[in-house]
Structures
1.
Amino acid sequence: MRNFDERKAEIFRRSENRIKERKRNRNRILALCVPLCLCIAILSVIYLPDMMISPDKSNTADEMNMAGGVENSSGFVYTSFEIKSTKTAKSDTDKQNIENIYNIIQSAFTVNDYSDDVEQETTTDKSEFPQEQKPSTQKGESTLKGEDNYSTGLVESFSKGVAYTLTFTADNGQKIVYILCDNILTNETTNESVTVTEDQLKDLYTKVFTVTYGKE
Amino acid sequence: MDNGASSYRRFLDGDESAFDEIMKELFDNLVFFVDRYVHDIHAAEDIAIDAFSDLVVNKHRYNFKVTLKTYLFMLGRSRALNYIKHRKVINFVELTEADNISAEQETLEEIILADERKRIVNNALNSLTDDMRVVVHLIYFEDLSYDEAAKVMKKNRKQVDNLLYRAKKELRIILGKDGELLL
């Protein structure tokens, strides 16, 4: 067995070794953790803004929302769409379709921005639309588009002189109503009117009538 | 002296000589106690050195809620059990060396067990179970209280009571009526 001094020396020698070992382990961990934290920080800076933006995008009314549908200004989603005319009425609850219809209407207002007194202007545009030449469509008959503007083989088109009421209803009961007469689209709430272009009308018709009407 | 607590405080404040006092007071006792577990005097010394080195490395782990002796014995016990757990090889020694080992053990016993009565009891302890042997050692040889012994052995007071009662009963049988008086 060791004597007193040997024991004491051994105690302090082992203590020093343990302290050195502890410092070495601490440095090793730091050497590992600091680059790791740095990588995480860099990745967050790169990817986090994109991740933050995407949820925000889905909340704005004019962004495409594949899952949830389009929202009104209060943040409620439009859950139903209805189109009425003197002859017929149809409704749709497919959120994707409602969103598509809504986006076409919004794009019409965004791109074709006219004042309230747009009727005089639009009378000149009427001649561009084939429905002027097809009064029989008012009765809901199928009409093949032999006209220039409708070459897609659609069964029907918007009837001339017929006012279509397009109503979007949100899940909180809030409604927004548009009136489409010939190629004039009017927002009943804001009294804003625009002339819908041929392409927009075509798109709108496709989305509204092909899905909701089927064959008439 | 409060079993080393005040010396340890002085050591923490920077007084190196206080550590010598602690060593002189407690080292041999710790070795003797650890030897109860490992039955190898050199290993017991090694373990005692490690336990003391814990006092130096982890200076602020001892919270002065128990006596320094109790704390050191707790450290020694856990290291001894760890040693037993990891001991894989039984060391065979030359007979001549074995004589030296037992001689050293006897020397340590002589130091610790200056009291003849304690020596008689110590010899009888070998027939007891480990726990009984340890509890008798702590209470009888190291003069720890029941609570302190319970802390060292990581048992509750009731368990220590029971162990001691059973140990005394066994020793009564081994040592006879006269031996009972030694306890």
2.
Amino acid sequence: MKDTRSIDPASLQMLKVARDEGLETAWDRYLAQQPQCGFGELGLCCRNCNMGPCRIDPFGDGPQKGVCGATGDIIVARNLLRMIAAGAAAHSDHGRDIVETLRGVAAGEIRDYTIKDESKLMALAREFGLSTEGETVQVIAKKLAEAALEEFGTRKGYLQGINRVPVKRKEIWEKLGITPRGIDREVVEAMHRTHFGVDNDPANLILHGLRCSLSDGWGGSLLATEFSDVLFGTPRPVRGRSNLGVLSKDAVNILVHGHEPVLSEMLVAAAKDLALISAARAKGASGINLVGMCCTGNEILMRHGVPVAGNFLQQELAIITGALEAVVVDVQCIMPALGQLAACYHTKFISTSPKAKFPGALHIPLDEHNALETARKIILQAIENYPNRDQNRVYIPEETAEYVAGFSVEALLNALGGTLDPLIEAVKNKKIRGIAALVGCNNPKVTQDHSHVNLAKALIARDVLVVETGCAAIASAKAGLLLPEAAELAGAGLAEVCRALGLPPVLHMGSCVDISRILTVAAALARELGVDIADLPVAGAAPEWMSEKAVSIGAYVVASGIFTVLGTVPPVLGSNVVADLLTRQAKDLVGGYFAVETDPFKAAELVIAHIDDKRAAMGI
Amino acid sequence: MRFVIIGNSAAGVAAVETLRRLGGYRHRITVVSDEPAGAYSRCLLPDLVAGKRTENSINLRPAEFYRRLEVELLAGVAAVEVRPREKRLVLQDGRELAYDRLLVATGASPVLPAVPGTELEGVCTLRTLRDARRLSALVPRVSGAVVVGGGLVGLKAALALRQAGLGRVTVVVTSPRLLIRQLDERAAAMVERELINAGIDFIYNARVKAFAAGPKGRLTGVELEDGRELPAGLAVVAKGVRPNSGLVEKAGGKVGQGIVVDGNMRTSLEDIYAAGDCIQVTDRLTGQKVNSALWTLAFEQGRYAAANMLGMARPYPAPLTRLNSARFGGVDVVSVGNLEGEEVLAHYDPLSRTYRRLVFSGGRLAGFILAGRVDGAGVYTALVKSGRPAWAYRRQLLEGRVGSVALDLLFKRDKGAHNSYE
Amino acid sequence: MPKEVLIRYDRCLGCRSCQLACAVAHSGAGSLLGAVLNGERPRARIFIHQAGGHKAPLNCRHCQDAPCIDACIAGAMHRQEDGTVTNVGGDQQCTACWMCVMVCPYGVIRSDADGTLALKCDRECRDEKGVPACVRACPTGALVYDEVDEYSDKRRLDVLNRALSNL
């Protein structure tokens, strides 16, 4: 019988190995969880106070209210707001770490990093309204970092990032009272509102959810992206290889996994250290092979062309190759299962963030003030571990695919010749029908990469330019869609544009915080055209999403005016009121709205229908 | 062995099924019935009158039932004599049937008051299919009806007549309120409200003096003892039933409040058993000898009698003889056991619009009434039946949280096992 | 030997997953999301109760001498060949007289949403392996579908079943 757990042959091979070795993966645990709690699936359970836990009978048979009197509508709305708050918090706390690092570098406290993109620094300083005249780069950087840190805490007015959107969009937010204020504030307020006995109006709760998510999209995530560019360089198109086949049979394999580039940048540098390379050789290895996974992988692949070993559901499979000397993790999307799994091999599971410790992990905390040294220490651990590798247990799938990644806004503009005009022209003359952003995770509820790859293929075949981040982008990398050669899979119009500009039909724009790049492009396009973002022939999709960050992303994309298709069902169906708000009323309120469609081919139809509607409305 | 069963309702059908289930197909079974055809649900006759059901849909068993169970059915013929010494049964048409074991399941017949006019056309009972047909035929010819008797049958008949389209239906009740044997004042009032809303009038504390005839010998009205006269073309008499114990009595069998049977359903006559509404039973709670007269009991007695007829000694435990469930409009009522006792607790729950009355004697639940919603009624019934200490559960029982009571009883009963598993 | 749904009381967490699964299995759509999206109101036939410190499901035991069959005035309640006691799919239709409700010692027969039908466990929820929905849904293995004797052999006595004959 066909194994439907993944479409990726490398994953399928490793799942066979896992079975032979008697090792459990997320797919096994997902099956063991079946059937999952129906109340949870519908969002109808509440644990917010200790009069509970309460749950609401969706069929009107059992209890219809919690102890406090909360209806299913209230509970679903509160739960959703908490998911958004958690997602926004994750992105934004990541952003804060990057800004803090820049501040430390500017203040001279942190020496291992330098400012890689001065012109971006200047541009951001201007955007923040800072005077740059006659100031040194260090001083400007310090002022900028401090101004950016102000975005998180109490401040007057609204977030700086919202000034990137067209006036029309700002007015919509203002009217609804959802213009984001402090980043931390919106998250704190979300937690406050969902505390017992505060906000019990489903619509009011959801509206704050939108505001909270906007503080992520136009705040925390945006700062994470922009300040990473300043510190580590703004990505430019770069070629590299993807999938588990990037692991080496004879080199010291180090997998970096998680989300923040602060440590991984140093690891990339340290892995090139000749002393360490000879140490590796002294242990019988051919060298050091640093590879990435998930968004840490995305960060270093788009800046350095570091190979990416896979996306979310491949983290365990990478260990099962038996070829990893170390898995080095920072924060987010790291399965707590890794420790026990790594213990079945010689693999060292090394955690590095004080915020994220794991069972079975060796904790080597990242010291920003001595980051390179930390990186060297970690790499040495891996090198020392190389002789422990049991080559008889090594199974590395051959699958790899090349990619071209690194389409930051700046890189895209550069490819277009400095302005958005060629893109706008192509959209106007229908060579490009529209633009779709595919983002998000893997989820064992659906076949790994099936929805990502098939939705992307279906869209480019019909001349929709696809832009991607996160695990969606890695899925496309593995499927070869991130290459200019993939233009042959595109419709005639899109293919023509791709060939003329040397672009792939699917553009890798970065990690999941880099959805802010997509927002920035959308906002810039709208401003160029003198319309609102909601008027553009663009759509979003999260075909295999699983994390709370994805909920925040979905919310800010919709709140920014963009129609978004979810490929796994969010836990909101327990409330008609909330479901209706998200899938219908949102259209009138913010222009964007959600649809849920688990079939990627049908999702493609939804996206295309939406794009065609928007084209018609614009008269193009 | 040759089994003959007189009677083709609940007890007869249950006996036939049990004889086949436990005894297989080597025995001959003959069923004699004065009813024209197969078994039907007596309790659904009001639905037939109301026009809510057809005759087909009140059949208790499908048409092929007797063929499938290889039973000889002699329908439409009454049994007139039992000769216990010869082990023969004489039928109305002169036929004689030999038996090895005989089951008397002759049921009961309505009691008619000893007043003039009960023989008139228009004065009916509602006990058999024939009665129902007769009533249905009369309904279109009259404009109003009087129902005599405020018990379950009377009220169901009254409601059925309204539903059948009669403009005026008056119930004459001897007692100061309806369902005096089943309900207390409060529950009765809940039912009364439903019936009044359905357009039924009630006259309490009244007795019938005579059924008055018009020139053509048809009923024209009902005279009450207080002198009132209620014009009506139709009267339904529902004043209870009397066991059909004549066959056994004539044959020399013992009869009390019905045919007397021992713990194995045997009459005082050799190889003659009896079950159903025709017998006398000992009430489980009061120890009083009463006539059986409940569908559920008839069914279980039929089963017990059959097992005993097959030679399997199955002692029949003393039954609860008050066990009633009915629905009147939006109010369901269940009434089981004694209406009075040492401690009586009552509570109306406005949220579920349900009234509960509990009667305790010696710390045990001796009876209860539920009116409104009756979910979980069986847990109360089981408590009454088992006679287990129940006073500690009074609160849960009063509030209708009976699932937890059922669970707790089970935990307590088998504590040893509960501690030992796993 | 007929199978029964048996209960390991110490494993029940009171999550009501069995109840939800039972309702879903008796919905038109047959799936939770489908039933919710269609606005259906299917009713469960298994119930979670708490007695003292124990939470436990209560469901039909499909009694040997089922009082509900005796009590049914319509002849609708019957036993199927596999031992299942049900008032649907037989020769006659349920008339909602609640006689079965009155005599069920476990209180697990109830009315439907409109009060026109007595609802009980009918085992019309079994999958291709014959396992009922409530058993499949139980996350802790508190519900077991097994032959009574086999289960006893495993020394996991079912209290409900033992108590049944005594009630």
